[in-house]
Amino acid sequence: MLGNNLPLETIYPPSASWDFLGMKVGDIHADTILLSWGCMLFVLGVCAAIRPSLTAVGPGNKGQAILEMLYDFLADVTKGQIGHEWRKFFPLIAAIFIFVLIANFSGILPFKALEHMAWWPHHGHEAAEIAAPTTDFNVTAGLALVALLTYIGSGFATHGVKYFKAYMNPIEWLDLIIRPATLALRLMMVITADELMRGAALMMVPVLLPAGVMGFEMFIGVIQAFVFALLTAIYIGLTVSHH
To answer: 10, exposed or middle or buried, with CB in 10 Å at 0-12, 13-18, 19+?
Structure first.
């Protein structure tokens, strides 16, 4: 997070952290969890609202046109990187892209303007900061772990036990660390930098400059969602390829 995130203990003191064998295992970031849930509910809500109006006859309404355009775009990305088995992995690639995109955009919401409200949660003497879930390493690392398990599992599903031979090379073991680490860190650091840049713009020129910064931030949010989904598809494509 950008700094003063909201620990769960602020809302629900008994669940301040997990205790494992008497050891305290970190704080649970309530703001990250709630905003992530909000992003998922938003996606499901939009799809539920558009679904009844979907039609196979004619072009359909604007909502259907947007969904079809998104489907074609993500299908081309998945098919181009994975090949003939792309349909198995399309739901995952699409879900990653859409969630990361909405999560990136959620950081642009005017949370800063609410920090002066009396009801706004505080951590200590400072107001809790709410930022995009993708500025939290727990979120990006979780997404990277899903990608890691998927492309390893797809390798064994495609090649069977002989896929173990790929990991006889120590470089492949390094890839198991480097690939998910770069996925998680790139997304987190870029979106965090965007949030910090917008915060600086709001403090220096609060009227006009932030609008341009927010537009740039949305552009970067799209690019980062695309890069995360594309790299996941590339990694899966490398493991399912027959060579």
So the answer is: middle
In this structure, the number of other CB atoms found within 10 A of the CB of residue 189 comes to: 13
Q: Is the per-residue pLDDT at 74 higher than 80?
A: yes
pTM assigned to the model: 0.83
Quickly state the pLDDT bin for 114 (edges 50, 70, 90).
low
Burial of residue 161, with CB atoms counted within 10 A of its CB: 0-12 exposed, 13-18 middle, 19 or more buried: exposed
In the numeric block, the tokens 């620990």 are attached to 7
Q: Assign 75 a pLDDT band (cuts: 50, 70, 90).
A: very high
Contact yes or no for 78/86 (Cβ under 8 A): yes
SS3 content of the chain, % helix, strand, coil (to 5): 75, 5, 20
Name every residue whose Cβ is closer than 8 Å to that of residue 177 and which is 6 or more positions away in sequence.
none
CB count within 10 Å of CB 5 equals: 19
